[in-house]
């Protein structure tokens, strides 16, 4: 039985055009009786979905076709590089550098930025290979669906969508704060006080909502136009950073950097790296634009790797400049660059810093809006979310429904919720997904269904389990800070042995067709270890949020997403066996989901 495509053929109604078929077209939701039968089959269906894996061709053709219209392939490596810069370099760099230099690491903060940059680059490599091989809008959701199955993909993607909403809301409210600074006002001067609401939700922020609305409008009009706007703002932002570096170096004192370079020792360097890693987060949104890239094999590696290299260089230069201007013990933790310039007779520079922060936050919001909509679009293409959200507008070539839905949720959170509350909800989702993508890459290289022998499959599973276990043990030892360096003499060699065993004992089953991560399995294994290590530095509130939201996702999946995706996969398999594809315009040689 065919399942509605949520955006393909058929007569389109004017106006909203919404009906039950737009949201629940599957057989399991055709009647209450059918839904009851589906619920009684939950156990068998869950077992099927836990082991089912998609195919590259399915994600590239059948699943993508459910959006009705294609996204426009307008982007080049230049667009992707500036999207990467815009996504990563926000306002945080102006605050995090000072906080960590003063409280955790001293002038060696530049080494912390290098360590964080290297770890981020490892994740970039893993994302790049997948984005080149599977250039679709789903990003990590599509990659995990192919290698680890749609259950794991849904849990991971659901978490990152919540993080996008929370992160976007936090950035939008911070936008109001920096805007107030430019006008010499307190942020609450631009907010409405609703005394009847709880204190953390009583400062209503209409400016944050207005900024999100403008970003939403730009995002749905054209991806290429969004790219141009992002390019202009990112260039201005880089120019502001260049000004801060040049102007700051005119006030440099080399003694500030060399007098006590690493006052907190190696532990301080790595502790700061765990915090500063979050200054690199955002590049994963760029991978969701692969479907709109003209030449993925060329543009994605150049764009993503180039953006990360430029970002790391700018971060290190900013860190060196700040530590040359001010002794690390005198750095202001809240406004390090503004206060540093003011102390040296350049108080006007705080307006330049605030202007640069506004530019950075605007581009972060823009790239986040583009990325989160494409995540949601691809999830909806699989019918784990209502297929109405998968529609791509034939005129603009953008996922209008998904963009508006995500930014509406972000706007509601930003309107009510205090910035401190949002900061406490920082998620572990990104690191969790980075780790899963690295695991998925190892599975992709070493396992092909029907070709890899059972013995090799078992060795692969054992090696990956050992890599994960040794990484968790290392992170635990670091977090507990007990026993000095002795535990690492066990955990680190265990990681090395597990990775070496995978390299020596398990033959690679698949070579990348266009672009591949070098030094496999060493680089993906290192990415796993680093991301697990950084997960160990996250506060308990984030783990609580992760657990609560994941539990909510599981409830939704068991009652809705599981049955919708099961019906869709079985309909595709039936079409493939019959020598058909959903839209009747191509042939498949094997069932899309096994």
TrEMBL record:
GO terms under cellular component: plasma membrane
Statement: the UniProt record of this protein carries the keyword ATP-binding: no
Boundaries of every Cationic amino acid transporter C-terminal domain copy: 515-565
UniProt xrefs under PANTHER family: CATIONIC AMINO ACID TRANSPORTER 1 (PTHR43243:SF96), INNER MEMBRANE TRANSPORTER YGJI-RELATED (PTHR43243)
Keywords: Amino-acid transport, Membrane, Transmembrane, Transmembrane helix, Transport
Pfam families for this protein: AA_permease_2 (PF13520), AA_permease_C (PF13906)
Primary residence: membrane
Name of the protein described by the UniProt record: Cationic amino acid transporter C-terminal domain-containing protein
Originating organism: Oryza nivara
Topology in the lipid bilayer: Multi-pass membrane protein
């Amino acid at each position: 039985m065919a399942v509605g495509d949520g955006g393909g053929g058929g007569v389109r109604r004017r106006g909203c055009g919404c009906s039950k078929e737009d949201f629940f077209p599957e057989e399991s939701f055709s009647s209450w009786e059918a839904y009851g039968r589906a619920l009684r089959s939950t156990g068998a269906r869950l077992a099927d979905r836990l082991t089912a894996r998609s195919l590259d061709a399915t994600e590239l053709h059948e699943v993508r076709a459910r959006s009705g219209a294609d996204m426009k392939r307008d982007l080049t490596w230049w667009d992707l590089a500036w999207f990467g810069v815009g996504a990563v370099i926000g306002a945080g760099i102006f605050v995090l550098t000072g906080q960590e230099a003063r409280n955790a690491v001293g002038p060696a903060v530049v080494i912390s930025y290098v360590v964080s940059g290297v770890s981020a680059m490892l994740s970039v490599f893993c994302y790049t290979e997948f984005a080149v091989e599977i250039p679709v809008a789903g990003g990590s959701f599509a990659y995990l669906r192919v290698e680890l199955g749609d259950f794991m993909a849904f849990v991971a993607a659901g978490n990152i969508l919540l993080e996008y909403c929370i992160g976007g809301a936090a950035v939008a409210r911070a936008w109001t704060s920096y805007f107030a600074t430019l006008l010499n006002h307190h942020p609450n001067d631009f907010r409405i006080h609703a005394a009847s609401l709880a204190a953390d939700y009583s400062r209503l922020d209409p400016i944050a909502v207005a900024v999100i609305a403008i970003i939403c409008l730009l995002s749905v009009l054209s991806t290429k136009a969004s790219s141009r706007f992002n390019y202009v703002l990112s260039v201005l932002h880089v120019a502001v950073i260049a000004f801060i570096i040049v102007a700051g170096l005119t006030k440099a004192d080399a003694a500030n950097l060399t007098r006590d370079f690493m006052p907190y020792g190696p532990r301080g360097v790595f502790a700061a790296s765990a915090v500063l890693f979050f200054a690199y987060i955002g590049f994963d949104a760029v991978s969701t634009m692969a479907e709109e890239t003209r030449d993925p094999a060329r543009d994605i590696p150049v764009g993503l790797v180039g953006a990360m290299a430029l970002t790391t260089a700018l971060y290190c230069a900013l860190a060196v400049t700040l530590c040359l201007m001010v002794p690390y013990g005198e750095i202001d933790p809240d406004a390090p660059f503004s206060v540093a310039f003011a102390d040296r007779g350049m108080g006007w520079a705080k307006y330049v810093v605030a202007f640069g922060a506004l530019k950075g936050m605007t581009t972060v919001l823009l790239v986040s809006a583009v990325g989160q909509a494409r995540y949601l679009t691809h999830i909806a293409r699989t019918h784990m979310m209502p297929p109405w959200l998968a529609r791509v507008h034939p005129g603009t070539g953008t996922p209008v429904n998904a963009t508006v839905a995500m930014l509406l949720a972000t706007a509601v959170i930003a309107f009510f919720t205090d910035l401190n509350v949002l900061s406490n909800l920082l998620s572990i989702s990104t690191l969790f997904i980075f780790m899963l993508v690295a695991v998925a890459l190892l599975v992709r290289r070493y396992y092909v269904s029907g070709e890899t022998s059972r013995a090799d499959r078992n060795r692969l599973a054992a090696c990956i389990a050992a890599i994960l276990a040794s990484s968790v043990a290392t992170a635990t030892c670091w977090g507990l800070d007990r026993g000095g360096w002795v535990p690492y003499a066990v955990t680190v060699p265990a990681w090395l042995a597990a990775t070496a065993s995978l390299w020596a004992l398990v033959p690679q089953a698949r070579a990348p067709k266009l672009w591949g991560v070098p030094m496999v399995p060493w680089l993906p294994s290192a990415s796993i270890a680093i991301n697990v290590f950084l997960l160990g530095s996250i506060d308990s509130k984030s783990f609580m949020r992760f657990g609560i939201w994941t539990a909510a996702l599981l409830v939704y999946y068991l009652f809705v997403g599981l049955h919708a995706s099961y019906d869709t996969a079985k309909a595709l398999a039936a079409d493939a066996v019959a020598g058909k594809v959903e839209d009747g315009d191509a042939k498949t040689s094997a069932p899309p989901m096994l």
